[in-house]
User: Fold these one by one.
Assistant:
Number 1:
Amino acid sequence: MGSENPQLHIIFFPFMAHGHMIPMVDMAKLFARRGVKVAIVTTPLNVPFVSRIKTRGGGAKVDIQTIKFPVEKAGLPEGCENADSLIMTSHEMLNMFFKALAMLQQPLEQLLHDYHADCLVADVFFPWATDAAAKFGIPRLVFYGTGFFSMTAEESLNRYEPHKKVLSDSEPFVMPNFPGDIKLTRMQLPDFVRQGVETDMTKVWKEAVEAGMRSYGTVVNSFYELEPAYADHYRKVLGRKAWHVGPVSACNKDAEDKAQRGKESSVDEHECLKWLNTKKPKSVVYICFGSLASFNDSQLMEIAMGLEASGQQFIWVVRKGKNVEKKDREDWVPKGFEKRMEDKGLIIKGWAPQVLILDHEAVGGFVTHCGWNSTLEGITAGVPMVTWPVFAEQFYNEKLVTQVLKVGVDVGVQRYCVELKGDSIKKEAVEKAVKRIMVGEEAEEMRRRAKSLAEMARSAVEDGGSSYSDLNSLIEELKSRCP
Ligand code: UDP
C-alpha cells in the first residue's frame, strides 16, 4: 500500500445460513463505516439476503462478490445454496452441502488475489480459509457466530469431558475450569458428543476448530461488559486472540435497516409497527425460534394454549414448515384461537422483522430458542427472556441468560433435539414462564437487569465504548501489518 494512511481491504465470507450471514453482514457494515474497503463474498442465490446493505449501509460502501456454488458437482439439487433448508431435512444432504463448501477454496483464493485483500474474515465452517489466507500472506480471522461463554464452554467440555464422568444422561455435571458453577446434563449435548461417535459432521467441526486455532484470531459478536469473566477466560486462560465488536445488530439504527435483515419479511413492517403502536409499553411478548427450528403441530398447539392462558398480548412467529404450509385447516391452534386473539395477538407465518419488533417499546418479553443472535438482540433490546433451547450451542446460551445474567427463566427443555422438531413442552410450562417474565416482582427485577445490560450494549458500540475501541484496535493492528 505504501501510503501514510492505507485503506484496508477486507473480504468477509459468511457461511450460507441466516444465523451466520446476518451478523456477518452487520459486521462488514461496521468495518466499512470505519473506512475499510469491504467485500462480502457469497453465492448467487444468497445475494438477495446480503444485497440490501448496498443501499442501506449507513453511508458505508460495501461491495458484493459472488462465487458459483457447485451444486451439481456436489450432487445437490438445483437451488441448494443455503444450509437453512437442509438442516431441517436431511443429514445426507447437509453432508453434501459441506462437501460443496470445500470446493469454494479455489474461487475464493482467486478473489483474494484479484481483490488484493489484506485480511480474510471467514466463517468457522470454512476450515480451509486459514490456509487460503496464508497463501497470500494475509491473516484469516475466524467468525464462530457465538459469544465468549459458549466458545469457552465448548472448550471446557472438549478438554475435560465431564459428561463422561456422570452415570446417567440426566445427572448434572459442572463445567470444569470454567467461571461460575455452571451445570449441564448429557441430555443437553448433541447425540454424537453424548455417544462419543464420529460422524462426517463431527469431522468437519474438528477440522474447523483446529483451523480456527491456527487462524490470526477471532472476531466476536459480543461486548465485554456482557460476559467479562468469559471474555477474559477465552483470552487469558485459553490464550486466544479475540476482538469483541458487538452487538453488531445495533449498527441498524433506523426502522428500514432493522426491518431488512435476512429474508423478506412476511408481514408489512408498517402494519406490524402500527399494531405495536396501539399497545402499552412492555405489554407484548415476542415469540420466535430463529431461522431453523420448527415445531410439530402438537407443540405449536401447546404454545398457543399456553399463550392464551397467560393472558398476555403477543407476536408469535411460526416458521412456515410443512406443518403449517400444506394445510387448509389451522389445526395447530385451538378452535377459534385466531378469532379470539384478534386484538391480542399477531401471528407471523414465516419471517419477522425481529430487531424492529424487539426494539419497540411495547415489547416486554421474548420467548427465544437462544440462538446467539437472538439472545444478543434480546439483551440489546433490554427484555427479559424465556429460554427454549433446541440444538447447537443454545443450551450454553440458556445458562448465560438464566444463571449468569439472570435476565430470563427457562421453559424447562431437557433434551437437545436431533430432529430439530423441538422438545415437548406443555402449555402449563409456557403459561408459567411467559407470566414470570411479563408480570410481577420477579419480572420487574429481570427487566431492571435487562435494561442495564441494554444500556451497556448500546454504549459498547458508541464512540469510546469497549466494542468500538476493540474494533479500532483490530483495524489499526491490521493496518500495521500492511506493507
Ligand atoms: N430472524 C429474523 N426474523 C425471523 C427469524 C430470525 O429477523 O423471523 C433473525 C434474527 O433476528 C437473528 C437471526 O435471524 O438475527 C437468527 O439467528 P440466531 O442465531 O438467533 O438463530 P438461528 O437461526 O441461527 O438458529
Number 2:
Amino acid sequence: MPDRSPMDTLPAFAALNDLARHPLDLTVPGALSPARIRTMVCQGGGCAIHYATQRVDDIVLDRLQELADQSGAVEQFLAMKQGAIANRIDGHDSENRQVLHTATRDLFTATPHEPAATAQARREVERLTAFLADLDSGRLAAPDGNTFTDLVNIGIGGSDLGPRAVYLALQAFSRPGRKVHFIANVDPDDAAAVLAPLDLSRTLVNVVSKSGSTLETLTNEELARAAFRAAGLDPRQHFLAVTGEHSPMDNPDHYLRAFHMFDYIGGRYSTTSMVGGVMLGFALGMENFMELLRGAHVMDRSAENRELRHNPALLLALLGIWNRNFLGHETLAILPYSQALHRFTAHLQQCDMESNGKSITRQGAAVGYRTGPIVWGEAGTNGQHAFYQLIHQGTTTVPVEFIGFRQCQYGRDLTVQATTSQEKLVANLLAQSLALAVGQPHANPNKRFPGNRPNTLILADRLTPATMGGLLALYENKVALQGFVWNINSFDQEGVQLGKVLANRLLDHFAGRRLDPAYDGGAKDPMGWALLETAGLLTRPVTKRPHP
Ligand code: G6Q
C-alpha cells in the first residue's frame, strides 16, 4: 500500500482546523444562491450529489482535496482494487488479507489475463447462471415436480443485511411467482414465524456463511432442516449453500448446490458476490443481478478519479470528514426518501460502523482524532413524523445524507390535489434539505430554526438494479476512502469478537449444567445469572480465539 500517515500529521489538517473556526454560514441571506445550488453538484455512477447545503466553500473544498491528496486516499483505493494487502495492522496479529470485493463486479471488460479474483467471480456467476437456467426450464424442480416458488435466506450480519436491503429495494423487479424470506436472528421465534406459513415442498433454503461456523446461522440451518424432515422432505433436495472455500460448510454432499465466496471479500462488502447473488438471482433473475453488478462497477470506476469534485464517493467521504473531525459532529443520519430503501440504512450502519468504528491506526497506535460517526436513519417521510424535531431544533447537530429519486418504481401513482405522490415525496425531500440548511428566524423562540444543519442530497432518476448497485458501491467506497484518510483498517471487525467469545463460554456452561443429574431445568435460574461467575465472565478475559 502507498504511504500512510495519521491524518493529523498532514499539512491540510491544520489548515482545515483553522477554517473550521468560521465555517460558511448558510443562514445569511443569499448564501444559498441559485448559482451555488447549480454548481455544487457532482455527477457519477448514475447519481448526482448535491452539496450546496453543506457548510463548505471553494476554499474548504480545496483544502479537503489536499487532505485527500496528502493521505493518498485514491492511490490506496486503486492499490486495494489491484490486490494490495489492505486488511492489516502492521507489526501485529491481524487478518492480513487482500480486499477485493470490487472484483466481484469487475466482469464487464474481459481481458486475456484476468486477475484471479475476477476470474473466480466470473466462474461463480457462470455456475449461478446455469443453476438459475435449470430452475427456469424446470430441469431442476421440487421432488414432486413443482417449481420452487419460495427461498428462505439464512445468514446474519454481512450475510444478511446488504442482501436483504437490496432484495427489499428491488421487489418491483421481482420475477412473478418468486418470494424470498429471511432468517437471521438466533431467536427461535424468527425461524418459526418465517417457516410456519410456507409450503416447504416448494421452498429452497439458502444458507449463507463465509466462515461456515457462525452460531446463529448453523443453529437456524438445523431448525430449518428439522422442519423439512418433519414435513417428510429431504433437506438435501432443497438446501443451497454459499460459503468460503474449505469452510466447515463447504460440503457439496449436504446441499443441492454450493457456491463460493472468498477470503478477500469481507462480509459487509459481500452483497455483490454469491452472498447476495444466489438469492437475488432467484428473486430478480440473472439479468437484473448483472445490472446490479454493472451499476456497482460504473460507480467503482468513478471512485478512481483523484478530484473530489468529480468523484462522488471521495466527495461524500471528505464532506463526512469535514463534519466529523473539523465541525465536531458525532452522528450521521441517512434518510432515503424511498420506501423500498427502508432497510438500506441498516446495511449502511454495518458497512460504516463496523468498518470505521476503530480507534487504532494501521500501525497499531491510538488515533488522535475522531473516526467513524454513529450512523442511523429511517425512510422519509416517515421519519419526519418521528425524529426530525431533534434534527431541526435539538441541541445536537446531525448531518444528513438524503437519498431520493425523480421517478417511482412501479409507475402506479395518482394525482391528488394536483400533485402526484412522487411529487409530494420529492417536495418533502427538498424542503427538508433547505429547512435544515437555512433555518428560520422568528420572534417566538419556540418557532425558531437555527439552520446551518449540514446535509447532502443524493439524487437519481429511478431506483433500478443498476442504481441500487451504484448506491451500494458509492457507500462501500466512501467508507473505504474515509478509512484511508483516517489511516485505520476499515476491513476487520475485532470489536465483535469479545462478546462472541463470552457468549460461547457461557453456552459451554449452559450445556454442562444440562448434563448434571441434579439440574432443575433452569427453574431457579433460567437466564443463567449464577453461571456468570462460574464461567469467569466477571473478570477481564484473556482468551484469544482466531477470527473465523
Ligand atoms: C461483516 C462481518 C460479520 C459477518 C457475520 C456473518 O463484515 O464479518 O457481520 O458477515 O458475522 O459471518 P459469516 O458469513 O461467516 O456467517
